[in-house]
Amino acid sequence: MKKYLSLSEENNVNFTTLTMDDIKNHQFKHFDAIFIGKEHLAEAAEPRYANIYIDYSIPFIFSVPREFGCD
């Protein structure tokens, strides 16, 4: 039995690379969720992004686990 779903095995999941500027400029409204990887955590934690995370109803997921296949 698998403990984690591997999103890379799913046919209905697509990943698109965004920059933190895309997030700052709200260029993500058509996505179902935003994954922010460990290499961007320091910038993503800056206060200028706080209202973006609060104001939008889509989930922002920080530090993507290896099980998601998004290295």
Q: Care to describe what's here?
A:
- It is a single chain.
- By secondary structure, this protein is an alpha+beta fold.
- It has one domain (about 20-70).
- It contains three helices and two strands; from the N terminus they run αβααβ.
- The protein has a two-stranded parallel ribbon.
- The mean pLDDT is about 80.
List keywords for this structure.
single chain, 71 residues, alpha+beta, two-stranded parallel sheet, 2 strands, 21% helix, globular
Strand-helix topology:
Blueprint: H1 20-24, E1 34-36, H2 41-44, H3 50-55, E2 60-62
Parallel strand pairs: 1-2
**Which radius of gyration do the C-alpha atoms yield?**
13 Å
Strand fraction equals 5-15%
Task: Please tell me the total number of domains.
Answer: 1
Helix content: 10-25%
Describe this structure in a few short sentences.
This protein is an alpha+beta fold.
